[in-house]
Structures are given as structure tokens and as C-alpha cells.
Write a structure and sequence with these properties.
Recoverin, domain 1; EF_Hand_1_Ca_BS; EF-hand-dom_pair; 177 residues; 4 strands; mainly alpha; 8 helices; 60% helix
Amino acid sequence: MRDEAVNRARGIFTVLDADGNGVLEEADFHLLSSRLEAAAVHSTPAQREAVRVSLRDWWTALVAGLDQDGDGRVDFEEYRGGVLSPQRFGATVAAFARALAALGDPEGDGTVTRERFTALMTAIGFAPDRVAAVFDAFGPSADDRIEATAWQAGVLDYFDPAKTDIPGDHLAIPPAS
């Protein structure tokens, strides 16, 4: 796996490990869902439920596909071995990407403001400066909005190790020196 892809995997693992205990557990996905719901103050109940369901399904797919020792948790080595595999997890990541973009576009006009993007991405656990760089890389409009579909596609790109020079690369944790 390319260093860039490993850095993405490390970054994703870090934010999915919402309680910071070094392993992914079901509770992390509940905590992440709660944080997103709290940040999505303008979203509808259906949009919040879609995020809850997508995160539940993502956890279910991860533990079923990556928990090699059967302990009901996924450590980084287990995670790294298969997470950036669009054919294995593409459907669950796509469902999350759709739900996340919808939270950012509660009016359904097809755009996401910088404020909402920042609130949601920092609720996930990404650093504000990196979130700002990602938003800028999407090429916001004059009124500081990005297309919700571009964000959705960007999430999918981030999970595809074949993709390079994508906006989400601004989120990746740089390699240790």
C-alpha cells in the first residue's frame, strides 16, 4: 500500500476511534453519531437517522470483515489490512457519504456552507485547519459553498487507495519523521 494510502488509513482510524482507546469498537460509532447529530443543528430527524444507520452498518461491516481475532474490536493492524478496499466496504462508505452530505445540505439545495462543513468535519474529529484546507480544495463558490455531491464523491475518493491528489489528502496524518 502506498504511503499516502497508509496515511489516509491512519487518519480514518484515528477519527473513527472516537474514544481514543486505540481500537475501534461499536461504542465509537455511537459516539461519532452523537457528535455528528449535535453538530447538525439544522438537519431533519430523517437525515440524522440516516447517519445513525450508516454508521451502525459501517461498524457491522468493519467488525465482520476485519476482526481477525474475534474479540469484537478492530485494532489498527486489522483495520489497515482491508479498510482501503472499495470492493469490500464501498457500499457502507457510500451510504455514510450520502448521509453526511445530506447533513451538510439540510435544505436540499445541493450545496454545503463552509460553516456546516466545518462543524460536521470537526465533529468527526478532524483538525479545523485541515478541514479548512479540504473545503478550499473543493473550490468553493463566491458565497463560500461547495457542491454536496462533490463532498460525497470526495469521501469515496478518500477511501480509494488508487486516488491521488484529492481534496481529502489534506486530512491525512503526515508520516512520522
